[in-house]
User: Fold Delta-aminolevulinic acid dehydratase from Actinomycetospora termitidis.
Amino acid sequence: MFPTDRPRRLRTTPALRRLVSETEVRPRNLVLPVFVAEGLDAPKPISSMPGVVQHTRETLRKAAAEAAAAGLGGIMLFGVPSTHDATGSGAVDPDGILNVGLREVRAEVGDALPVMADTCLDEFTDHGHCGVLAPDGSVDNDATLEVYADMAVAQADAGAHVVAPSGMMDGQVGRIRAALDAAGHVDTAILAYSAKYASAFYGPFREAVDSQLRGDRRTYQQDPANAREALRETTLDLAEGADMVMVKPAMAYLDVLRSVAELSDVPVAAYQVSGEYAMISAAAERGWIDLERTVLETVTGIRRAGADIILTYWATELATRLDR
Ligand code: PBG
Assistant:
């Protein structure tokens, strides 16, 4: 052993460890995903995501105010409508629950907290797919783009600073950019779910949004086996004008996140999804792991892998334990 072969030297005191710590998570790096449901008079717990609820309009406003006070980087809204139809028309309707929620959250937080909208049809369609269907039952890519264009404009009209197309349709970023620009929303940003995998980790989310889906999303979401394809998807989204790109889920895809971060010339987000939340919550409930340490460790790992921005259902709680 040479005298230099002693990396433990830099671990001897907390202050030394702090001096050489490479990765920092700040509240501004965190985005809180929230669900707002139509027609509730009290928040409704999501059993597979202990601590997460479907919000009423009232409690949504409160959650947004708390997120702003905690110094978060943003809030991402998902809508849970009480009715569904074949084309997901509630997504485009200015009085649809998601657009109402966006308007109220924006009124609450102004420009202090970036307000983001999930731009996808699955919560609004009666078949639960992320797009509209062709007569043969397949998801019709180009017909879906037209609905996404209207949906994104409705979200920007409602006050969203950022729209986040998550449906993995080809050309969605370019089509939405053109629609936003044509409607005068040149400053509304697009956070593209560029590499979104067909994942078992979305299980609890399906309960969270009362998903109507039977079957799966494998004709549009990516095969978990594929990493190169994620780079192709990202390259296309960047060429179409994505302002930020995202990898989802996070923990099983840290290699993909790392390569997307190396490729991207825009900020990179990663989504610690519902199943990641459920898995950690369940183990912690049983006393098998420590919740606070596990949350910070996973979020730090996601950040270390290359995420500038992390969507996590723990965003507000975690932020209160972090330096600003
Ligand atoms: C689709 C969408 C999903 C999630 C975010 N946007 C579900 C899916 O693709 O089936 C999952 C989020 C999570 O699991 O936390 N609009």
Summary: Residues 132 and 138 are 8 Å apart (CA to CA).
